């Protein structure tokens, strides 16, 4: 049985990854920070549907570096790590505080790197895989989201470098760079804002979370073992 750690399993993309991987026989460690109820509900549903598999909920504040050791100690087998956690700050660079920079750096880059460091030996034993949910903004950048774009670019750079370093261990390391995805992050947009966005996307729609999860599933499969250190845009033709 294969085990995947999903960082950010309470988010829409994390939940889609959990449902899709569980349907393919994976057991899961589902991480959350504050949204315990959403992850507990997810796990209850998965346990009913797939009683032969194991599902665990694990709490971690990704900005609390002191707890990483105890967090990773709970992971007995790890075949894959999916990094789907993170958040954005929508403001000008000049309005972004040093504390916000530190917190998002820790959450989106440093803590995932430390977790990868801790589980490398487990992944190497299983010919494992790491997949980051990056962003098209890590490729093209976005005004008003300079910090977020910078950190997504850092995730992409980590994937390219660590993918080279870990290839000899039979660990693949890749990132998916979604464009606009229909998630809770954009439910507050006005109709006009949504219309303007869709007019810029050649596919004329946002991606569904499960479409991102489908690429994650592929990257964890046997047919993707020769893909590593790669960023895969999934954008409907937008901003690439």
UniProtKB/TrEMBL annotation:
Protein name as it appears in the record: 3-oxoacyl-ACP reductase
Similarity field: Belongs to the short-chain dehydrogenases/reductases (SDR) family.
Lineage of origin: Bacteria, Bacillati, Bacillota, Bacilli, Lactobacillales
UniProt source species: Vagococcus elongatus
């Amino acid at each position: 049985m294969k085990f995947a750690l999903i960082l950010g399993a309470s988010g829409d993309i994390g939940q889609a990854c959990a449902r899709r991987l569980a349907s393919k026989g994976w057991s899961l460690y589902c991480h959350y920070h504050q949204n315990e109820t959403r992850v507990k509900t997810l796990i209850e549903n998965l346990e009913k549907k797939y009683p032969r598999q194991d599902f665990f909920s694990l709490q971690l504040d990704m900005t609390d570096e002191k707890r990483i050791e105890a967090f990773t100690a709970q992971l007995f087998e790890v075949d894959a790590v999916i990094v789907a956690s993170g958040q954005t700050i929508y403001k000008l660079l000049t309005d972004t505080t040093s504390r916000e920079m530190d917190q998002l750096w820790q959450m989106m880059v440093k803590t995932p790197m430390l977790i990868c460091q801790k589980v490398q030996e487990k992944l190497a034993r299983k010919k494992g895989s790491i997949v980051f949910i990056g962003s098209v903004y890590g490729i093209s950048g976005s005004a008003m989201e300079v910090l977020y774009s910078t950190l997504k670019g850092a995730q992409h750079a980590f994937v390219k470098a660590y993918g080279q370093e870990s290839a000899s261990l039979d660990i693949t390391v890749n990132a998916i760079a979604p464009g606009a995805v229909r998630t809770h992050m954009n439910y507050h947009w006005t109709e006009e804002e949504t219309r303007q966005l869709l007019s810029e996307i050649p596919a004329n729609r946002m991606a569904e979370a499960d479409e991102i999860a489908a690429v994650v599933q592929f990257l964890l499969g046997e047919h993707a073992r020769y893909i590593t250190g790669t960023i895969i845009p999934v954008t409907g033709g937008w901003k690439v």
